[in-house]
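Blinded run. Sample ID left blank on purpose so nobody reads anything into the name before looking at the predicted structure. Input follows.
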Amino acid sequence: MEEPIKERSRIESITEKIKVLEHELEVEFVKRRAGLSFGIERGRVVFEKEILRRHRELKISILAYVAGARPLILLTAPIIYGLAVPLVLLDVCVSVYQAVCFPVYRIPKVKRSDYFHFDHAHLAYLNSLQKFNCAYCSYANGLLGYIREIGGRSEAYWCPIKHARRVIGAHEQYTEFVDYGDADAFKENRRRANED
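Blinded prediction complete.
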């Protein structure tokens, strides 16, 4: 039984290194953003006047933007925008699921505002159609991240077992799941969960 414990501590060590590297990456992103001459005041992005002037010079009119688009891009736009209905429906269903079920199972709720960011509207080099498209993508990708976290917390509660094959893009809780086929670890995990 010594071997699985060594393997587990090695996995925990690697997981910790990944978290440290993710933090270092975020620090580098912050440094890079510092060179772009903007700040956040009362929740709003504010650029220096000269940068803002330059951004306005680079803005393309909506007419030029649409006229410059390839015809196939214009033809596929209704398909892209048509996803709005199922996305909103999915958002409502998952939000109701979390609101009703998470308190029952004592699962911490996912904070919605951590996943939805609509700051591209402050970029003066984007026209209103580009800003709308950015908001749409921000909503869709924020929603998918939000749903993924809700799903991850649900899976961590109900079935915290890794899969037999590698999972691409696994959620954060996945590294804490018991190994596939480790019945003893699963039984211990369930015992501890029921004590909470």
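Unblinding after everyone has recorded impressions. The longest strand covers residues 38-41.
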